[in-house]
């Protein structure tokens, strides 16, 4: 190995800033490095493995500025910059932690961070406002739902409207809806989608007790950015009305954010009404008391339901008992 590092692998000892330091780069550096582009495959024998890009410092700071400084929602910033909402939230938390560490005088591993950004692919921030930002990753990925694993043969008459909503009801073993409602939703899918995304608590459920679950919704509703589907429909329907389509998209996004904010506020107020706070005098402790309803519906048939903890106490745990299944038997998405 050391002999290879002293001969053929010697160029890899010192990387070129802004370029990867992978083994396929040896051919480029040996002959026409200026003509070729740095490789994104670290392993020459595994062409399917590609090194993914990371956020550049400029793009990371721009995300933090838009969320914290400009008070934009995480959903809006994710759609504008092409970064997943979970990554946007993580960037905001990490930048805030970095600022707090600087105020506390803690050392930061800045040389290590600069070296990593110079040696791996990065997603840059577009300088021009008129130029569209290069997406960092897919922001509307949807994992496969466990209910769709089954293969179902479901006969449907030719005169019936059978959409993705109906397919989700079949997978959930829910009864079929009225033909008139299906026809109206098929005529205006954007409005039907908005009714579901703006009122998620009104989604129909099937099953009883611990097996109760909501009816499987179509992919247009379950993706992280359902408003982009409506925006694409309007863009295709009105190809020459870019400004009008953009205004409608911004208005729809603001409406979705306001409805989500009001829904969270109502849920918080409901939790506060159910909670009693007691703080004794000259005490730094506060007792929070919440009334619960202990019944078979809240505790489940085995007494281990999470909606009411009272009946769970005294039920033995079988975590260390032989013959018990201790690995997850299903994945709830």
Automatic annotation (TrEMBL):
State the InterPro entries in the record: Ribosomal_mS45
**Organism domain of life:** Eukaryota
What residue spans carry the region label Disordered?
A: 296-320
In Swiss-Prot or TrEMBL terms, this protein is called: Eukaryotic mitochondrial regulator protein-domain-containing protein
Which source organism? Aspergillus cavernicola
């Amino acid at each position: 190995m050391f002999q290879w590092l002293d001969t053929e692998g010697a160029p890899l000892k010192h990387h070129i800033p802004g370029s990867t330091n992978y083994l396929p780069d040896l051919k480029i550096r040996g002959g026409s490095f200026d003509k070729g582009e740095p490789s994104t495959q670290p392993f020459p024998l595994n062409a399917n493995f590609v090194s993914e890009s990371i956020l550049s410092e400029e793009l990371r700071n721009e995300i933090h500025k838009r969320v914290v400084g400009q008070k934009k929602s995480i959903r809006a910033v994710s759609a504008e910059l092409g970064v997943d909402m979970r990554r946007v939230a993580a960037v905001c938390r990490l930048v805030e932690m970095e600022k707090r560490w600087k105020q506390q005088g803690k050392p930061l591993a800045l040389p290590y961070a600069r070296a990593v950004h110079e040696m791996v692919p990065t997603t840059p921030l577009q300088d021009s406002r008129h130029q569209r930002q290069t997406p960092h990753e897919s922001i509307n990925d949807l994992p496969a739902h466990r209910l769709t694993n089954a293969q179902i043969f479901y006969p449907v008459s030719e005169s019936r409207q059978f959409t993705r909503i109906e397919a989700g009801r079949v997978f959930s073993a829910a009864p079929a809806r009225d033909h008139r409602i299906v026809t109206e939703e098929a005529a205006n899918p954007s409005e039907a989608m908005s009714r579901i995304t703006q009122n998620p608590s009104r989604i129909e459920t099937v099953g009883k007790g611990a097996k109760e679950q909501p009816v499987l919704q179509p992919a247009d509703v379950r993706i992280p950015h359902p408003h982009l589907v409506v925006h694409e429909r309007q863009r295709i329907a009105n190809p020459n009305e870019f400004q009008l389509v953009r205004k409608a998209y911004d208005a729809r996004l603001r409406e979705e954010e306001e409805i989500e904010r009001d829904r969270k506020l109502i849920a918080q107020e409901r939790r506060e009404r159910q909670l009693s706070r007691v703080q004794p005098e000259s005490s730094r402790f506060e007792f929070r008391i919440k009334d619960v309803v202990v019944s078979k519906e809240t505790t489940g048939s085995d007494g281990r339901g999470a909606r009411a903890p009272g009946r769970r106490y005294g039920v033995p745990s079988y975590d260390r008992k032989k013959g018990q299944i201790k690995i997850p038997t299903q994945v709830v998405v």
